[in-house]
Design a protein that fits this description.
Blueprint: E1 8-10, H1 15-23, E2 29-30, H2 45-59, E3 67-77, E4 80-82, H3 88-98, E5 102-112, E6 117-128, H4 133-140, E7 162-166, H5 169-173, H6 177-186
Parallel strand pairs: 1-2, 1-3
Antiparallel strand pairs: 3-4, 3-5, 5-6, 6-7
Helix pairs in contact: 3-4
Active site: 72
Catalytic activity: N(7)-methyl-GTP + H2O = N(7)-methyl-GMP + diphosphate + H(+); UTP + H2O = UMP + diphosphate + H(+); dTTP + H2O = dTMP + diphosphate + H(+)
Function: Nucleoside triphosphate pyrophosphatase that hydrolyzes dTTP and UTP. May have a dual role in cell division arrest and in preventing the incorporation of modified nucleotides into cellular nucleic acids.
Length: 200
Amino acid sequence: MLLNRPSLILASRSPRRRELLAQLGVEVSVVPADIDETPAPGETPRDYVERIAREKAAAVQPAADACVLAADTAVVVDGDILGKPESLDAGRRMLRRLSGRVHQVFTAVALRSPRDLRVICRETRVAFRALEDAECERYLASDEPWDKAGAYAIQGLGGAFVERIDGSYSNVVGLPLCETLALLRGAGIPSALDDPAGGA
C-alpha cells in the first residue's frame, strides 16, 4: 500500500527507479533533471556517479518543504564507464566487453532535504557468462538495451547473461533499496516499513 506522502520529488525519468520506490511504499512526483553528464578528466567512476547524483538533486527546485531524490548508475569495465549505447555498433562493443567477465556497477543516490544534501554510493560486482554473437544480435534487436547503462537490463531479458552478482541486486537495477531507505528515514520520509505515527 502506497503512503500518500507526495513530499518527495524524483529527479529521474527512469521508470525502474520509480518502481523501486513504489516497492518501498513511497509516492513521488517526477521532475527529471537536465544536466551535462559528461565525465570530468581523471574522474573515477565512484566520483563520477556521486557528482552526477548531487548535480541532479541540485538542478530541481522543489517547494520549500519537499525533498529531491536523484541517482546515477554506471557500468564499469577496466575502469571505463559504459554509458547508454548510442548505436548498434556501440551496443555490440559493450556486450563484447562484458562477455565472460566480471564488471562493476556503481549507483550513487543523493537526497536533498530542506536541511542538507546527503549522498551514498554502492558498488555491485556482476559476472557475465560468455555470450554468443547471435544472442547478442537478438538482444540488441529488442527495445531493452537502449536506455540502459552498459546496454543491458538485469531485471529483463539481459538477466539471462548474468551468472552471479556480489552485492545489491537493486543497485544494478538503478537504486540500492537498503541505502535509499536509510536516506529517506534520515529525512523523515516514511515508507511502508515505517510506523505512520512516526516510529521506524
